[in-house]
Write a structure and sequence with these properties.
By secondary structure, this protein is α+β, with helices and mostly antiparallel strands. Helices cover 30% and strands 34% of the residues. It contains four helices and seven strands. The chain has helices at residues 12-25, 37-49, 97-111, 126-134, and strands at 2-6, 54-59, 62-71, 81-88, 116-122, 138-149, 152-162. Strands 1-2-3-4-5-7-6 form a seven-stranded mixed beta sheet. Helix 3 links the parallel strand 4 (81-88) and strand 5 (116-122). Helix 1 (12-25) crosses helix 2 (37-49). The longest helix is centred in the middle third of the chain and has 15 residues, at 97-111. It is globular, with a radius of gyration of 16 Å.
């Protein structure tokens, strides 16, 4: 059974392992070098300070995935839009963990009165594209050859889901 909860600093070593798997073995992260525990700690503390969620998926009390979101763009008028990230341990894929994390992070976005959640996914990541589409995301852009990793150019697809919030948008 999969349980989802807010991450704690004690989870950062497991989160780092999963994130570094994505860096080293996939095109899901447009990064070349593994991160350090200090980098993940800074990331986690910045998320916490900005009231942005970091969720972990647990299976038999072991962290097997995590999800978060952050600003989509830096300008104030984008404040109701975020971009999500979801990562699953390579040994735990195909068991519904990604789906559970996406559903949970969408619940967090709704609770924070957000309006749009974006997902940037490489065009060859069919599993992630299907996972997001099953949750209601639709493709809104296909950016060709925007990244380079593992000796090849990568296309990026942007998907979005529009939520009901906010109830009363403000421009301040």
């Amino acid at each position: 059974m999969i349980a989802i909860r807010h991450a704690a600093e004690d989870d950062l070593a497991d989160i780092l392992l999963i994130y570094n798997q994505a860096i080293e073995k996939t095109t899901a992260v447009f990064e070349y070098r593994p991160h350090t525990l200090d980098m993940r700690r800074d990331w986690f503390r910045a998320k916490h300070a900005a009231a942005l969620p970091v969720l972990v998926a647990l299976e038999s009390d072991a962290v097997v995935g995590f999800a978060s979101y952050g600003p989509f763009r830096a300008w104030p008028a984008y404040k109701y839009s975020v971009e999500l990230s979801v990562y699953v341990d390579e040994r735990a894929r195909g068991r519904g963990i990604g789906t559970a994390l996406v559903r949970a992070i969408l619940d967090q976005a709704r609770s924070q009165d957000l309006h749009v959640v974006m997902a940037g996914i490489t065009s060859d990541n069919i599993v992630s594209l299907r996972l997001h589409e099953k949750q209601g995301f639709v493709e809104v852009a296909h950016i060709r050859e925007v990244g380079y990793k593992f000796g090849r150019w990568l296309d990026l697809k942007l998907l979005q889901i529009v939520l009901d919030g906010p109830r009363e948008p403000a421009e301040s």
